[in-house]
Amino acid sequence: HEVLKGVNLSIYRGQILAVIGKSGTGKSVLLKHIIGLVRPDSGKILIKGRPFSELPGKTRRAFQKELSYMFQDNALFDFLTIYDNIALPLTEDPDFPKGKIDEKVSARIDQLGLCGTESKFPAQLSGGMRKRVALARALVTDPNVVLFDEPTTGLDPVRKMKVHSMIQEYQEQFGFTAVIVSHDIPQIFDVAQRIAMLDNGIIKFEGSKQDILNSHSKILNAFLRGENI
């Protein structure tokens, strides 16, 4: 089953790229290729101009440590408390100070409105709350690159705006690179510096918000209007 069909896409350091498109077009698969969870059958993924597959093992692992990923289904561990789920990426490093872990986890809990949930388990929270826990875990390591797979799925409009604002605020503050798979149109256009449309396994459009407004692409404009083509 061919999901991606020769995708040609550039991701610029220090920017937010939004990937839009119909469900089932390969957006999540694209993210998993970027982070190295899936290897392409053909073609190359270049990191700073060097093929990812040709990087020495040590260099490849170092790059992957700079990445953080927020899964669409949250991927929380039911047997861990909310605190431990968020802290998990930090506790994997035995040399990371316990006091620093508490500081970072507490900051994310406060920023995402999760106060009072620390000792609870994922099953005790609503879908929207679990989404925020997953987002807190993705940001707790202060990553250089963050991949968001539909980070606002299941959230009400107010929470969606808060999540978008937080992603934008963190990106401006820390300068990390972000790739966001999103169906929040047109709201995501105010967050991302660049937008790419994936359709049938191919990038059909790549550009800025202004480029979208000026585009005469039939496929892009039909998608934005919610029409089939």
What is the N-to-C order of secondary-structure elements (H for helix, E for strand)? EHEEHEHHHEHEEEHH
The backbone outline, from C-alpha atoms, is: globular
Distance between the termini: 22 Å
Hey, roughly how much beta strand do the residues contain? 15-25%
Please give the count of helices.
Answer: 8
Helix content: 25-40%
Q: pLDDT below 50 for ≥5 consecutive residues: which ranges?
A: none
Mean pLDDT level: 88
Would you report the number of β strands?
8
**Main sheet: strands, sense, barrel:** 6 strands, mixed
Main-sheet strand order equals 4-5-6-1-7-8
Rounded Rg: 18 Å
Structural class: alpha/beta
Helices and strands, with pairings:
Blueprint: E1 16-20, H1 27-35, E2 46-47, E3 50-51, H2 57-65, E4 67-70, H3 82-91, H4 98-111, H5 127-139, E5 145-149, H6 157-174, E6 177-181, E7 194-199, E8 202-207, H7 209-214, H8 218-224
Parallel strand pairs: 1-6, 1-7, 4-5, 5-6
Antiparallel strand pairs: 2-3, 7-8
Helix pairs in contact: 3-4, 3-5, 4-5
Describe this structure in words.
By secondary structure, the protein is an alpha/beta fold. The chain contains eight helices and eight strands, in the order βαββαβαααβαβββαα. Strand 2 (46-47) and strand 3 (50-51) form a beta hairpin. Helix 3 (82-91) packs across helix 4 (98-111), helix 3 (82-91) runs parallel beside helix 5 and helix 4 (98-111) crosses helix 5.
